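Entry 0007
Protein: Sushi domain-containing protein
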Amino acid sequence: LWLVGGCGCPPAVDNGDIVDTPKATYVQSESVTYQCQNLYIMEGSARVTCQNGRWSQTPTCRVACTANEEDMREHNIRLRWSNGNKIYSEDGNTVEFVCLRGYKPHPNSRSFRINCVDGKFDFPVCIPVCIFSEKYYNSPIYLSLSIYLLYTSISNH
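Output (structure tokens):
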């Protein structure tokens, strides 16, 4: 039995699920609620309503960007405004990083304010700060306890 103005099964949402118990048919003005799967962020209304035989606009579940401890350690960075070791960010949001102590921005590194784009961060990169300047290349360096070190640099020219 099909009711005038009723709807069939609600449309599927990629990476999303219907919270309510699904039914074969829905009457006019009846609604269902969607939720996104883990690490996905909803765009649009979670509630979808049967109107004149059609479902209202369904939400979109967009993948969140993540920056975890391993990602940050690999690039020698940390979050600028947080002491956390993992962050989830919505698509389009901006996150700011800084170099870890003892590191400096790589000369070809991207900006340290980066946007979440399609579930991905394009991480900036930091490199170790060299404690010896060029004037010490190939020079003997004496450390405490009579330790002798010859600092040699090989550069790519």
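Curator remark: The mean pLDDT is 83. The chain is about 5% helix and 40% strand.
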